[in-house]
Structure formats: structure tokens, C-alpha cells
Design a protein that fits this description.
Organism: Planotetraspora mira
Number of helices: 50
Helix content: 55-70%
CATH superfamily of the domain at 321-466: P-loop containing nucleotide triphosphate hydrolases
CATH topology of the domain at 321-466: Rossmann fold
Keywords: DNA-binding
CATH class of the domain at 321-466: Alpha Beta
Protein name: AfsR family transcriptional regulator
Pfam family, one: TPR_12
Structural class: mainly alpha
Number of strands: 16
Shape: flat
GO molecular function: DNA binding
Radius of gyration: 36 Å
Length: about 1100
């Protein structure tokens, strides 16, 4: 159904370089054709775009052979990159199920229309807001990825310039604006024939007291029109000129008609500068005599005291609507949040929007400068204009009777009114504000109150509205807007990564972001981002007209801190040791704080409680950390924090290899930042025992959750501390740290020489200290892993044999799986399968989902080559198991294997869907090698379909993601990619290039010592031999590949293609004779024959 959309956090931007974001996170759209496809779908969001239109838009006039398959492949890649549910196939084409406001182009056109309507109906303030937001969506040239988009670009540019004219017109209606003169001068230079711009420039100059320049601007317009068009200015512009010449007051309305063109006599002066064309009679404006003034009716006067805003309002438009809905249902709404969260701005915008719902308007009462609680009623009287007074006194009142008298007069004045009162900044006067609000709500039924405060008023009927930090996308928009004001010409998109670091590091807090943007006058965005560790010295350039507590970031937090009592300050300072927050149990044990005090910190917006954890915004935490350092007990608190999390890691470790892993992994993940900060502190402070405990017992956690490189780095630091003579260097713990380091280095392919060294050290330490009882499982696996790294399969097998009877069944299961994979790698498939089944039984027994899933995935490899359908179900079970424990480094590989099996079974749609899932996981976890693997398989699928262009694009994208082949797993993938590119070249007829690529692939495959990869490359050589007509050689190579692999491949596309060609040429009997010759070869012989 047309117009149906899917709820999603994905947003799209085409008014500039194409950007796609999922809840603020940038999604990479690789390849020009993929970007063109997405852009075409975005232009008609929610509507079906016909296939022909997509083909024409993506490939212009040069569609490939099999364009239908090519388009389908491109759509599959798009689904893998964004939420697949968003891209829907219809009989006639494809459509994108997103709401128009998720696309900046459609949001821009909507806001431009709304701004234009507001201008027409006499609401220039609303027009300015809508049009400023609309124009702020532009980041550069639009639709840059659409080769044939010139017409649409021209349409958008015309809407943009018209919206700019409307915005400036609206600003001028609000009063003189000298600041727009330079902008108008630039616009007139670019669009010299737009008469409306000429009129706006004349009005802006005249309104700024520059009459002579305004008259000169008219003369320039008259001369330009005469020279370029042979025409005079319109009567409207001439009348404006006459008013300026006489020194009359210039009407507030526009001087020339708005729209895409300007009417001039019987012709239309087009905005693009084309020659005048006859105007339709219906388009002709009514005749106007010189005596008729060009007056636009002023908007109706609104009651209230809300001032015009000087800056745009970014990111909380939805909040304004929801706050308004809350005010409609409730008479007391409190916007709650820490300093700098944007409470005041949200309150003013919400009050402005709600004002039309209350006959007596919306009134702002600013309490920030009121220091005496007794002065609160007087401040409200003054703000509402209910008595003649100057500044509200900040001295103590004469007594309770004065306060009561002021409240009584206020009640009397408001009892018959229906209005909204905004009590802004109540936290330092919360008791007095609560008393007054309670009285007004009880005695003045038409009054509604909107409060901003850092803590609730705490009275009956109060509805709290927590003001959340800005999401990343809106925070970046705010930074970009304020940065452009601080440094004209600055474009945030050029520093996107640095700007995102700034906005994330500042918790999305508007005031902090504005202070950071102001720093662009003297620092680059990268320099600001790098200096956020010293944020309180960095962010000190607030508005001179702001309250002192809003002029620097330190002052913002200091104001809240000064409102705390001693107990609250002590607990808040101690809570700063928690990175990422903590549970009630951890905060009570580490901080020794009272639950009631913790609750008060939550009420005062210093601590955030999300239902399970207590946390601080990073800026608040940084300030509290500085205060902790001044209190004298920082080391004691940090030591308690480190010990607590070391004990947690030690307790959790054995459970991570049992059925309870599904309970413990989420607990550790929630504390990941605390565990890391505890380890860093312990290492930095020389707490060797704590550091070694954390490293040793987090090793398997790092392995499971995909933080293996972090684990290697942290283990190295702890070992350096222990071996540097630090106290507490228990040799058993040092051995475990070395084993963790060796295992993670070997797995992550960081430094195999260092991995061997660490594993040798771990083994030697255990021998030297004659440890009684079984070692930690990671230490137990050190010897066979070391033997394999040293190239000794015999020694590795001997060590594994010793582990088969290990008292820990998990170690035995891991040993069986290890040997099974070793056998697979050396072509001993039957023995490998036997060991993997033994491993599977033991992993199931202990309940380890990671081990069970990996054993199943390995078993599925052999099943796939035999063509057994059970491989699909085996892989689905494996994926479900590793997904359950969140093993993000394992699941993409398993999904690509499942996609291959589904493709072999003929389920191409299912295969594409699984690849989309794999790619999404890789993107979410910043896994370039995983993404490269997915692109490789996509390329193979495209090559099988005959879509060679798509295959090449996928292979090259995979190579780009991989970088160089320095790491061993990268060597394996580089080898298979090079051979796939070689097979592609061969299929396209470039046999010389194919041979060169196969040679590179074979060298890398041999270096990787990976048997299946070597077999893959030998099959590629067989395909090349068949194409060269050497079918005997092809048959021998196919037999050699089977010998290396240890199993006959009855389903592989390239194996079958070469087999069919050689069999057809030689006959079955002759083919078998040469094939068996290859099967009798060793790996070394097969490699030598191929090369």
C-alpha cells in the first residue's frame, strides 16, 4: 500500500553529500550506484519507483547485461546496509517505507511551505523559525550521487532561494536587521535578476539608516534589468524606491510578489534569469494606484512577555508538542534536568506554542537572579506587569506579611484569568516556588504553570518532564548552527568525526555544545575534541548577557553543586569513580553512602536513575571527580572500586564457560566501563594483584564479546607492571595473564612472535612454580596453541591428547574441537568430524553455547561440501547459540557460511537476507574484516549470476576494507579474494590477468598454512586451465584440490564448472584417470603443480 511507513530510527540526508544515520550513528553507503539507488527511492519516499526509472537513474544510458539481476543485487546490498524492512519490492518497482520527515529533502519542503504560510497569515516569528530550520538542513550541493538529477536539483535550488527570501522578509517584518545586508548583497550578486531580493536589500538598508545605499541599490537594479532584459523595475519596486526617496516609513510587507518568479507588467521575470515570457492573465496582480500603500496587515498582538529568540531551536520540536499536550492535561508541569540541558529554551518554545490555548497569554518569570525566597511572589507580579516597579530587590523582604500581601494580590489579579506562567530556574528557591505554585493552582483555576528546575517542586499534581540530552544527530546540528555564527563559513560536515566526538563527549548537552562551538574562533574542531579532558578550562566563552552561571561550563555545574548539602556532596564526589554508572549494590559498597542521600541526588538532577543503574552525565562526573581529589579519600574510594570489580570478574569467570554464561555476560557487559577503568587505575597506581586478577579473569569475557585487542593491550600493561618489580606479582596470576595475552594475540593476529613468547612464559611459570591442581582453562590450552604456532602438529596433538581427560569438561571439549579443526586444516576430514562430535557432546554437557555453536559450525563445513541439506539447520542452530551469548566476532562468519549453503540450495532470497544480517552486525561492531567477508561472498554470488560489474565492485570493496595482507587471517581472505578476482578475469576472457592474480593468491594461501584456502586457489587454477583448453591439467588440479581439502566438493560453483568443462572435453573415464593422479598428490605436490 502506497504511503505506508515503518517506524525506525533511520534518517536520510540528500541536501548535501548522501548521509544515512541510525539513531545518530553514521551508516556507510558504499559505491556510487548504491547511493544513486537510495537517492532515487528517497525522492519518492513511500511511493513505488518503477524499475525502468531506477535503471535509468542508476546506470543512465548504459545499463549492463542482465540489468534486472543487477538491480536486484543492488537492492539486496541496500537492504543489508539499512533496515531491510524499509525496502519493499512491488510488481512494478521498489519503494522505501520511511516517513517523509525522516528525509531532509521532504522535511525541508514541508518547513518551507509552513514558513511561507506563516508569512502570508501575518506570523513572521513562526515563519523565521520554520524557515531557519528548513534552510539549516542544507549541507551542500543536493543529490550529488544522482547522475541525471539536474532537473530535480534546479527545482530544489529554486525552493531554497525562495525560502531564503521568505526568511529574510519575515526577519525584516520583526524589526530592522542590519546583519542581513551582507547576506542580501551576496544573494543579489548570485541572482541579479531576482527582483524580490532587490526589494529586500533596499528595505534592509533603509531600515538600518542607510538611505543613500538603499537608493543606490534601486539604481543598480534598474540598470541591470535594462541591460540584461530590456525592462524596467516593477511598479511595486518603483513605489518602494519612491517611499525611500521621500523618507517615508517603509511598509513591513514584501515589496514585490513572492514565488518562483516575479511579475513585471505583462511578463514574468524568472528567478533563473531567463528572458521574460508572457504572463497568464490570471497571474496578473490587481492594479494599484500610487496612493495605495504596500501595507501588510500586522499580526494580532499576543498577550504575554515572551521575547523573540535570537538563535534557532534545534532538535526538540517533538518535545514542544508533547510538553504542550502535557500542559493541556495537567496544570503543573516541571521540566527537570541538570544545568545546561536546555530547560529554559524548551520552556519558552513550549510556552510560545501553547500561548494560543490560553486567552491571557504566556508569561515568563525569570527567577535566576532572585536570591531571597520571599521575593518570588514579587518577581511574578513584576513579570506579569501587575505593579509598577523597577528591578526586583534581592535584599530580604520586610517580613512575612509583605510576602503574604504579594501572594494575595497575585491571587486576586489572576483569579479570573486563563494564562500560562513559566517559573524559570526554581532550584535555589524550590520551597518558595512550590508554596506559590500550590496557592495559585488552588485559588486560580484558569492558571497553568510550567516550571524549569534541577529538582522537582514536590507538590500534589506536579507532572515531571525530564529534559533529555540531545541525540547525536540533533547535537551535531546544534553545533553546526552555532559554529557557523562563531566562525562564518565553517562547515561542520568537513569535521564530522571530530564534531561527533565533541557532542558525544559533552553528553549532548546544549549549553556545553554551544560553548564548544564558540571555541571555534580560536581552535579547530579536532583540537576541541582532543581537549575535552580539560573541559572546564576549555569551555569558558559563554554569552556576556547570560547569567554568570551560564557563561562557563564550570559555573553551570558549580551552581548545582553549591545547592547540595555536605552529605550530598560527599556521595556525589565518590560516585564519580563509576564509569558508566553502577548498581545500588556497587554504589553502596564502594561509596558507603545512604540510600536517602542517593535519592536526593537523583531528585536534584546530579544523578540519573534509569530503573536499574545510577549514573552521572560525563560533565557532572568530571566536576565531581575534581571535588573527590580535594576531599582526601580519593585513593581509598578508588581502591574500593577496583577491588569490587576485581572480585566481580573473578566470580564471573568460571560461569562464562557454563550454562550460566547467559546470565553473567550481560552483567559484565553492563559493567564494562567500570571493569576497564578499575583495571587502568590499578595498573597506573601499581596495584599489581588487582591488575593481574582483572586481566586473568576478564580474558575469556574479552574473547566472547569481541574485545580481544583490548584484552591483549590490557594484559601487556599488567604484565609489564608485574615484571617491573611491582608488589603482588603472584607467578600463577602472571602465568594466566601471559596465557590471556598469547591467546588474544594469536586469535586477533596481532603479533604471532609475541604470542609464542607469552605462551612459552606462561608454560614455564607454571612448571617453575609446580602448581598443584588443574590450571586455569586458558593456561591449560597454552601448550597446544604454542605448538601450532611453532608449526609442530605432532607436539600439538600430544598436548591435546593430555587434555582429553582433563577434570574440567570444558577444557576437554575445547581440546577436542581444537584437534578437529586441525584435522580439517590438514585434510583429515573423517578424523576431524569424529573429534568435533566429541567436542559437541561435551560442550552441550557443560551448557556452553559458544563452544556448542562453534563445534556445530565446523561440522557444517564438511556437510556442506557433501551436499547434505542438514548443514542449513546445523548452521541455524549454531548462529542461534552464539547470538545468545553475543559473540559478535563469530556470528558474521557463521552467517556468511549459511548464506553460501542457502545459495547452493537455490534459496537466493534467503541467502541475501542472511548476508544483510551479517553485514548489519559487522557495521554495528566496526568489524572491517567481517564486512570484507560479506562483500566477498556477495561478489561470488554476483559472479555466479553473470553480473560481473557487481562482482568486481564487491571484491574491490572487500579489498578496501581489508587493507594489507599483513595479518594471517587477512592473508587467507586476501588469497581467496585474489583467486576470485582471477576467476572473474578468466570468465571475462582476460586469461593473463587471471594467471597473475592466481599466482598472488597461491603465495598468500601457502603462507597462511590454511588447507581449505590452498584448495580454493588450486580450483581457480583448474578453471583457468579448462578455459585455456588444457583439460588434462584441469582434471589433475581438481584432484589435487580434493586431496588438499580431504573431501570431494560436490556443490562448489567453481569446482563444478571446471569439472563439467574437463569431463565434457575428456570423457568421464579419461577425466577420472587424470583426476585420480591429482588425488594422489600431497599438499606440497599439488601446490607445485598448480604454480
Amino acid at each position: 500500500m502506497q504511503g505506508v511507513t515503518v517506524e525506525t530510527g533511520v534518517s536520510f540526508a540528500v541536501l548535501g553529500p548522501l548521509e544515512v544515520r541510525d539513531d545518530g550513528r553514521l551508516i556507510e553507503i558504499g559505491g556510487q550506484r548504491l547511493r544513486a539507488l537510495l537517492t532515487l527511492l528517497l525522492l519518492d519516499t513511500g511511493r513505488t519507483v518503477p524499475t525502468d526509472a531506477l535503471v535509468a537513474g542508476v546506470w543512465d544510458d548504459h545499463p549492463p547485461n542482465g540489468v534486472g539481476n543487477a538491480l536486484q543485487a543492488l537492492v539486496s546490498r541496500l537492504r543489508a546496509t539499512i533496515d531491510r524492512a524499509l525496502v519493499v519490492a512491488d510488481p512494478s518497482g521498489y519503494r522505501l517505507l520511511v516517513a517523509p520527515d525522516q528525509v531532509d529533502l521532504h522535511r525541508f519542503t514541508r518547513l518551507a511551505r509552513e514558513g511561507g504560510r506563516a508569512l502570508e497569515t501575518g506570523d513572521p516569528g513562526l515563519a523565521v523559525r520554520a524557515l531557519t530550520e528548513a534552510l539549516g538542513l542544507w549541507r551542500g550541493a543536493p543529490l550529488t550521487d544522482l547522475p541525471a538529477g539536474a532537473v530535480e536539483v534546479a527545482r530544489l535550488e529554486e525552493i531554497r532561494i525562495a525560502a531564503t527570501e521568505d526568511r529574510i522578509d519575515a526577519e525584516l517584518r520583526l524589526g530592522p536587521r542590519p546583519d542581513v545586508v551582507s547576506e542580501l548583497s551576496r544573494l543579489v550578486a548570485v541572482h541579479p535578476l531576482r527582483e524580490r531580493l532587490r526589494g529586500l536589500l533596499m528595505r534592509a538598508l533603509y531600515g538600518s539608516g542607510r538611505q543613500v545605499e538603499a537608493l543606490a541599490a534601486y539604481e543598480d537594479a534598474r540598470a541591470t534589468f535594462a541591460d540584461r532584459l530590456g525592462a524596467d523595475p516593477s511598479p511595486a519596486l518603483a513605489e518602494l524606491h519612491l517611499s525611500i526617496l521621500r523618507g517615508d516609513s517603509v511598509p513591513s510587507g514584501d515589496s514585490v510578489p513572492s514565488g518562483d518568479s516575479v511579475l513585471h507588467g505583462d511578463s514574468v521575470l524568472r528567478g533563473d534569469g531567463a528572458r521574460p515570457v508572457p504572463a497568464r492573465p490570471s497571474a496578473q496582480p490587481p492594479a494599484r494606484t500610487p496612493a495605495q500603500p504596500l501595507v501588510v496587515r500586522s499580526p494580532p498582538v499576543r498577550k504575554g512577555n515572551l521575547r523573540a529568540r535570537l538563535t534557532s531551536f534545534v532538535g526538540r520540536e517533538g518535545d514542544v508538542e508533547q510538553v504542550g499536550e502535557s500542559l493541556a492535561r495537567n496544570r503543573l508541569v516541571t521540566l527537570l534536568g541538570p544545568g545546561g540541558a536546555g530547560k529554559t529554551r524548551l520552556a519558552v518554545e513550549s510556552a510560545e506554542a501553547f500561548a494560543s490555548s490560553v486567552p491571557d497569554g504566556a508569561w515568563l518569570v525569570e527567577l535566576a537572579s532572585v536570591l531571597d525566597p520571599a521575593q518570588v511572589p514579587h518577581a511574578v507580579l513584576a513579570a506579569l506587569g501587575l505593579r509598577d516597579m523597577g528591578l526586583v530587590s534581592v535584599r530580604p523582604a520586610a517580613g512575612p506579611s509583605a510576602d503574604a500581601d504579594a501572594t494575595g494580590r497575585l491571587v486576586t489579579a489572576l483569579s479570573g484569568r486563563a494564562q500560562l506562567i513559566v517559573l524559570d530556574n526554581c532550584e535555589h528557591l524550590v520551597g518558595a516556588a512550590a508554596t506559590l505554585a500550590d496557592r495559585l493552582l488552588a485559588d486560580c483555576p484558569g492558571v497553568r504553570i510550567l516550571v524549569t528546575s534541577r529538582e522537582p517542586l514536590g507538590i500534589t499534581g506536579e507532572v515531571l518532564w525530564p529534559v533529555q540530552p540531545l541525540g547525536l544527530d540533533h547535537a551535531v546540528r546544534l553545533f553546526a548552527d552555532r559554529a557557523a555564527a562563531a566562525r562564518p563559513g565553517y562547515r561542520a560536515r568537513d569535521d564530522r568525526l571530530a564534531v561527533e566526538r565533541i557532542c558525544s563527549g559533552l553528553d549532548g548537552m546544549p549549553l556545553a555544545i554551544e560553548l564548544a562551538a564558540a571555541r571555534l574562533r580560536t581552535l579547530s574542531a579536532e583540537q576541541i575534541a582532543d581537549r575535552l579532558g580539560d573541559r572546564f578550562r576549555l569551555l569558558t566563552s559563554g554569552s556576556r548577557t547570560a547569567m554568570p552561571r551560564h557563561q562557563t561550563l564550570r559555573a553551570v555545574v558549580e551552581w548545582s553543586w553549591d545547592l547540595l548539602d555536605e552529605e550530598e556532596r560527599t556521595l556525589a564526589a565518590r560516585l564519580s569513580v563509576f564509569a558508566g554508572g553502577g548498581t545500588l549494590e556497587s554504589t553502596e559498597e564502594v561509596c558507603r553512602g545512604d540510600l536517602d542521600v542517593l535519592g536526593r541526588l537523583v531528585d536534584k538532577s546530579l544523578v540519573v536513575f534509569d530503573g536499574g543503574r545510577y549514573s552521572m552525565l560525563e560533565t557532572v562526573r568530571a566536576y565531581a571527580g575534581d571535588r573527590l581529589a580535594e576531599m582526601g579519600d580519593e585513593r581509598e574510594i578508588r581502591l574500593a572500586h577496583a577491588r569490587f570489580f576485581a572480585q566481580m570478574a573473578e566470580t564471573a569467570d568460571p560461569h562464562l564457560r557454563r550454562a550460566e554464561q547467559v546470565e553473567w555476560l550481560p552483567r559484565l557487559w553492563a559493567e564494562h566501563d567500570n571493569l576497564s577503568s578499575a583495571l587502568l587505575w590499578a595498573t597506573d597506581q601499581g596495584e599489581t594483584d588487582i591488575a593481574l586478577t582483572l586481566v586473568g579473569h576478564l580474558g575469556w569475557y574479552w574473547w566472547l564479546v569481541g574485545h580481544r585487542r583490548e584484552g591483549a593491550q590490557r594484559a601487556e600493561e599488567a604484565i609489564r607492571l608485574a615484571e617491573g618489580g611491582g608488589p603482588g606479582g603472584d607467578p600463577v596470576k602472571v602465568a594466566l595473564a601471559h596465557a590471556v595475552l598469547g591467546l588474544t594475540w594469536a586469535a586477533a593476529d596481532l603479533q604471532w612472535d609475541r604470542a609464542r613468547e607469552s605462551l612459552q612464559t606462561a608454560i614455564q611459570l607454571m612448571r617453575d612454580n609446580q602448581v598443584s591442581g588443574p590450571p586455569h582453562p586458558v593456561v591449560a590450552m597454552a601448550a597446544p596453541i604454542l605448538a601450532l604456532l611453532l608449526g609442530s602438529d605432532f607436539e600439538a596433538n600430544a598436548h591435546l591428547e593430555d587434555l582429553f581427560g582433563h577434570p574440567d569438561p570444558w577444557v576437554a571439549a575445547a581440546a577436542y574441537m581444537f584437534r578437529g579443526n586441525v584435522y580439517f586444516n590438514t585434510g583429515r576430514v573423517a578424523e576431524g568430524e569424529s573429534h568435533l562430535r566429541a567436542s559437541l557432546d561435551r560442550f552441550r554437557e557443560v551448557g556452553d553455547r559458544w563452544g556448542t555453536g562453534n563445534a556445530l559450525a565446523s561440522l557444517a563445513e564438511a556437510g556442506t561440501m557433501r551436499g547434505t541439506g542438514e548443514a542449513i539447520e546445523i548452521l541455524r542452530e549454531a548462529i542461534a547459540l552464539v547470538d545468545e551469548v553475543g559473540a559478535v566476532e563469530d556470528t558474521p562468519y557463521m552467517r556468511t557460511r549459511l548464506a553460501i549453503v542457502l545459495n547452493i540450495a537455490g534459496d537466493r532470497a534467503g541467502a541475501d537476507s542472511v548476508l544483510e544480517e551479517a553485514m548489519r552486525i559487522c557495521v554495528d561492531n566496526a568489524d572491517p574484516m567481517g564486512k570484507a567477508g560479506v562483500e566477498h561472498v556477495r561478489g561470488d554470488f554476483a559472479r555466479e549470476r553473470g553480473d560481473f560489474d557487481a562482482a568486481r565492485e564487491c571484491y574491490h570493496e572487500a579489498l578496501r576494507l581489508l587493507g594489507g595482507p599483513e595479518l594471517s587471517s587477512a592473508r587467507q581472505l586476501h588469497a581467496t579474494l585474489s583467486s576470485s578476482l582471477g576467476m572473474l578475469a578468466a570468465q571475462e576472457g582476460d586469461l593473463g590477468r587471471a594467471r597473475r592474480l592466481h599466482g598472488e593468491a597461491l603465495a598468500l594461501a601457502v603462507e597462511s598454512q590454511d588447507g581449505p584456502v590452498v584448495a580454493h586457489v588450486i580450483v581457480a587454477y583448474a578453471g583457468l586451465a579448462a578455459l585455456e583448453g588444457d583439460h588434462e591439467r584441469a582434471a589433475v588440479l581438481l584432484g589435487g584440490a580434493t586431496a588438499v581439502r580431504g573431501i570431494v566438493d560436490v556443490v562448489g560453483y567453481d569446482h563444478l564448472r571446471a569439472t563439467e568443462a574437463a569431463t565434457a572435453a575428456l570423457g568421464r573415464e579419461e577425466f577420472s584417470r587424470h583426476y585420480e593422479r591429482g588425488r594422489a598428490m600431497t599438499r606440497e605436490q599439488a601446490v607445485a603443480f598448480a604454480g
